[in-house]
């Protein structure tokens, strides 16, 4: 029965839950804990999915609550571990593919903006590049040799306070390595079969990352300045594999307007994250103990 619970948990966390969480709009008000919950759900689904087959083979081979001698059940052991091995290899290959593609794309784009862009104003950090373009746009290229990219129309259309808010948003992406968070979810999204994928879930995680960067930017800029900057950048786009200050502008403006401390919601979401992550570990322990 417990082995079946592990398998059911893996399916529930991998399919209906990622489709349910984007509907819980309250989570957008606490983007940090919300991202923690998303990570807990994803890791718990992986743990349960990887453990299900070996635990099923163990339960099949066991006559008592004691763990059977592996040498007496080599065929069963190999079968269970083979299923898990295929899943692990798929995850590793997808992580390698996604990571390699992202880093190559970012390197190529960084070289391009270094070639075509101008250095930012003298009072700005040296990693800022200014590109000629009529549309106000701002984004960052993550990595060891990161870049913050803005267009000349951004500098012309945004007052100093709004420009500071935009740059603070981009530096939040770089400082807290939001690109790695998004890469983690992208790998899991592509590693599972197509019928299990949740594009809405990936979009929601992307939105939460942007809202989290907005919250960091508010430490150095008032909400009005950041809100006006979001409106000014609403029509901009950013290249693949980069992170931008625009996108979902209306939703983010509404969240800025409704922003306040929500300690109860934070505690609830963090508590749920811990419970979700511990659940597959507890079930696995119960199976191993023969309960």
Strand content: 5-15%
Major sheet characteristics? 5 strands, mixed
How many beta-strand elements?
Answer: 5
The H/E string reads HHHHEEEEHHHHHEHH
Rg from Cα: 23 Å
Number of helices: 11
What is the mean predicted local confidence, pLDDT?
A: 91
Q: What structural class do helix, strand and pairing data support?
A: mainly alpha
Low-confidence stretches: none
Backbone shape: elongated
Strand order of the largest sheet: 1-2-4-3-5
- Assign a percent range to the helix content: 55-70%
Distance between the termini: 9 Å
Family: Belongs to the peptidase M48 family.
Keywords: Hydrolase, Membrane, Metal-binding, Metalloprotease, Protease, Transmembrane, Transmembrane helix, Zinc
Domain Peptidase M48: 126-182
Organism: Luteipulveratus halotolerans
Characterization of the model:
Keywords: Hydrolase, Membrane, Metal-binding, Metalloprotease, Protease, Transmembrane, Transmembrane helix, Zinc. Its cofactor is Zn(2+). This is Peptidase M48 domain-containing protein. The chain is mostly helical. It has a domain at 118-259. Helix content is 66%, strand content 6%. The chain is built from eleven helices and five strands. It has a five-stranded mixed β-sheet with strand order 1-2-4-3-5, sandwiched between helices. Strand 1 and strand 2 form a beta hairpin. Helix 4 packs across helix 7 and helix 9 (223-232) runs antiparallel to helix 10 (249-257). It starts with a helix and ends with a helix.
